[in-house]
Amino acid sequence: MKRDIIAGNWKMNKTQAETKELIASLVPAVANANCEVVICVPFTNIEVARKAIRGTKIKLGAQNVHWAPKGAYTGEISADMLKELKVEYVIVGHSERRQYFGETDQSVNARAKAAILAGIKPIICVGETLSEREEGKTAAVVVRQTNEALEGLEKTDLKQVVIAYEPVWAIGTGKTATAQEANDTIAIIRKAVRRLYGKTVGNALRIQYGGSMNAKNAKELMSMPEIDGGLIGGASLKAEDFGAIVNYDK
């Protein structure tokens, strides 16, 4: 029985002091959640967050990882470095990384492989732009991104993988896909995984929806049969809102 997963993506927000303060509010807010709860914090806050969540239901995540174990990659962080800090999850291929930092399907694949090799679970992001959606390319885009991201991975590796469908046009805009649109697109992603690895693996894979999921729409989105969680942006920075999202089933 797979367990839903709600992950907060803090993006480039919060100092160490603010991290301690937010986590102090998050801990009681998510204490009774039935889903898996993850916070993906900036690199500078990982150690502070690790100590603050010790003994709680919250798991630790990072927002990016490099594909090489070490080397002349100024400003990058390796999977082994994250592992040493007890990071369990890492976001890979977020649309903002693709948009602003030249991330490609191939580099997403390399980063995901590095994470898995280190025993860290990658949250692999896929999703179409507004123009791609308007041109009817949504299915082609998410299938291509999924296939490329999983290239070279074995069936056993998929047990460590989470995929997040995040329509680019719905991130940070306040816009969101309807519950049915999100469900239908995630079904397309799952079908692509089934083609690669078989029905059992595809059905067991957890696929989140990311794209302005909030306290008001979380219950409707999470009630859809194909949606196994959420990758939460702005709402993850407010304990009350994040708490409402992770307790969607209450």
Question: Would you write up a description of this structure?
Answer:
This protein has 11 helices and 8 strands. With 250 residues, the protein is α/β, with parallel strands linked by helices. It has one domain (5-246): Aldolase class I (TIM Barrel, Alpha-Beta Barrel). It has an 8-stranded parallel β-barrel, surrounded by 5 helices. Strand 3, helix 3 and strand 4 (89-92) form a beta-alpha-beta unit. The chain is globular and about 45 Å long. The two termini are 20 Å apart. The mean pLDDT is 96.
What are its keywords?
alpha/beta, TIM Barrel, 8-stranded parallel barrel, 11 helices, 8 strands, globular
Q: What structural class should be given to the helix and strand makeup?
A: alpha/beta
Output the strand order for the largest sheet. 1-2-3-4-5-6-7-8
Q: In this structure, how is the largest beta sheet organized?
A: 8 strands, parallel, barrel
Beta content comes to: 15-25%
Mean pLDDT: 96
Computed CA radius of gyration, to the nearest angstrom: 17 Å
Detail the poorly predicted runs.
none
Q: Helix tally?
A: 11
Could you outline the blueprint of secondary structure elements for this entry?
Layout: E1 5-9, H1 16-30, E2 36-40, H2 46-53, E3 58-62, H3 79-84, E4 89-92, H4 95-101, H5 105-117, E5 121-126, H6 130-134, H7 138-149, E6 162-165, H8 179-197, H9 199-204, E7 206-210, H10 218-222, E8 229-232, H11 239-246
Helix pairs in contact: 1-2, 1-11, 7-8
